[in-house]
Structure formats: structure tokens, C-alpha cells
Amino acid sequence: FFLSHYSCMRAALSRLLAPPPPPLTGRRTSMLLLPTIVAAALSPGVPGARRGAVHSAVSRLAMQQQTSSPKGVVITGGAGGVGYAYADEFLARGHWVVICDVKDPEPAVMALRQKHGGGLGRIYGCTTDVSSAESVGALAQFAKEQIGTVHYWINNAGINGGRRPFTSLSTQTVEAVVKVNLIGVLLCTLEAIKLMRTQRGVESHVFNTVGSGVKGGGTPGYACYGATKRGLPQLTDSLVKELDDGVEGYEPDEAARGAKVNVHTLSPGMVFTDLLLNDSTPKLRKFPFGVLAAQPPEVAQDLVPKILATSGNGQKVEFLTTDRILTKFFERFVQGKKSEYIDDNGNVIKVPGAQYLDNGVRVQY
């Protein structure tokens, strides 16, 4: 195994041993110093007045991180998993968010409101079946009414139908996976673009979430899921060309003039959610899950800043970048670093004080 990954390990080593980047200055430096400031504030040896001053400094820096111009965000499948973590991260930055889910999102909305009650962010929720054109249309109208302008629409909702042989699936399961993962994305993207093209003077972005199967190759146990994800880059590439260059033989829509809409793919990688852990085995949990998978908040903390910084059209926003994969391989197979999430027997490591579902998914609220 080691020899088969020698070139990967060598590339990772060269990156890890590369000279450090130039020192940061200004606001970025201040934000990176937050952990140090917090540690100083909590130190027992620091006088009360000094600790109060440090806490004030932390508050000021945190407010600086929040945007002075809130953006409108729609997240499908936002009542749990990485969708909930995205909403949490956007709210922490002061943005206005609408989450939807096929189940009642109100408990998630209440949890987020309680957590971010003193911030600039706003959170709203509605029940939506993304496979229903009528329901998705109602979501778009709800978002327009609640947050006004939609700058980012994240098609996150998805199901995999369970990890099992394709021939053992019921026709109802096959139909459900295709309806949610493919038809759902088509309907949501259509409504998102129609809404965004009415927003004159606004540049907006649609993100289609991809997963296993997106780059081809087999996805045994997830044949139906992989097939639906494989189609999303093609959809995205087609829309990029239509939005940038139009369609031959059709005049540009004058009603959309002045609005810039972009479409991208979003890849959260392996995330410890129901989709990953349901029907998993100790062997799979040890590798690749124990090496490459991450908890939803970690993924959101990485991807939300990337989403907000995305410019242009047709971008690929990823959590498991090549550098991250190589680094994780190097840490595991060269340095022998243990997984913080999976033990040597393939069991989920449960953090004291945290709550977990029977399948090992950590409860976020």
C-alpha cells in the first residue's frame, strides 16, 4: 500500500517542508490571533480588569469578522448535517439565511436563533420537498419575502438510498434517489436562476453539491447515488455556457439584463452524517472514513469562506483538495497519526459530553 502511494507521500512531504508564507498583516493577523487572545483571557493569573479588556478586544475582532453588508443565502437540506453547519457558519458572519428541509426545520431554526441571537445574522426556515416543482417554487417565494435578495443558493439536499447492491433496491428507492438528487437539483437551480435574474445590479451564485461518482469510476453500493451525482458537472457546465454566451438562435432575455448569475459545483467530501455512516462497516470506517472524513462544522468552516470568496462562473469549490488529501495520507501512513474520529477497531470515537445517534452521527443541536 505504501509503495503504491509513494509519489503522493513525497508530494505531501515537499508541501509540508516548504518555506512558510510571508507574515500576515492587518485584519487577517488579528483574526488568527483570536485563539491566543482567548487563552490569555481565560488564564487564572490575569487580573480581572485585564481579562475584561481582553474579552472586549475579542468581541471587537469578532464583530470585524462579520460583514457590514449581509448576503442572502438559501440552503436546501439545511435542518441537519453539513447543511445545518453551513447555516451556522453563515450566521456567525452576519448573513441572512433561509434553510429548508423535507422535515420541519423549526427546531434547527430555533437552535440557530438561540446560538446567534446577539449577532447580525437572521435565520428562517420552511418545509420543502425539492422533488416537487410546486414546493420549490414556494421556497423561492419564501426566500424573496424573508431575505429580499438571494446572493447564494446552495443545493445541498440529497439522499443515497442506503449502501447496498443495486439489484436489491426497490423501485421506490431508485425513484426517490433520482427525484431528490437530480430532479431536485434541476428544479431548485431553475427557480434560483429565475429569481436571481430579476435582481438587477446583483451578482449571485448557485452551488450544486457533488459527491461520490462525480468524477466517474465505480461506486459499488451507491450505484444510483453515483449516477445522479455524475450528471451535475454536466448540468453546471451547460448552464455556465448558457449564462455566459446564451443559446444559439435565441435572443437574450431583456428582463435579465443587469443581473449576473453564476453556477458552480460544491464538494464537501466525506462528512460524518447519515449518508456516510448508515450501513457502514468497521473496515470502511477505518479507511477511508477515518483518514479523509470530517465533522460537519469543520467542513463548513472551510467551505463557507470559499463560497463567499467565489468569483466568476463555473468554479469547483472543494473541501478535500489535493493538498488536504496528500497531507492526511502523509499524517496517517508516514507519521502514523491516529484518527480523532475513528478508533483502531473501526468504531466512532465519542467525545465526552457530546450526543450521538445510534449510527455514530454526532448531534449538532
Architecture blueprint of SSEs:
Blueprint: H1 6-16, H2 26-32, H3 34-42, H4 48-65, E1 72-76, H5 81-92, E2 96-101, H6 106-115, E3 122-127, H7 133-147, E4 152-155, H8 171-196, E5 203-209, H9 223-245, E6 260-267, H10 274-277, H11 282-292, H12 296-309, E7 316-318, H13 322-333
Helix pairs in contact: 1-13, 3-4, 5-12, 7-8, 8-9
Q: Estimate the global geometry from the Cα principal axes.
A: globular
Oligomer: single chain
Gyration radius from CA atoms, angstroms: 22 Å
Helix content: 40-55%
Order of helices and strands: HHHHEHEHEHEHEHEHHHEH
Number of E strands: 7
Name the structural class: alpha/beta
Q: Order of strands in the sheet with the most strands?
A: 3-2-1-4-5-6-7
Q: pLDDT below 50 for ≥5 consecutive residues: which ranges?
A: 1-10, 20-66
What distance lies between the first and last C-alpha atoms, to the nearest angstrom? 40 Å
Kindly estimate the percentage of residues that lie in beta strands according to DSSP.
5-15%
Work out the helix count: 13
Q: Mean pLDDT score, rounded?
A: 87
Q: Largest sheet, if any?
A: 7 strands, parallel
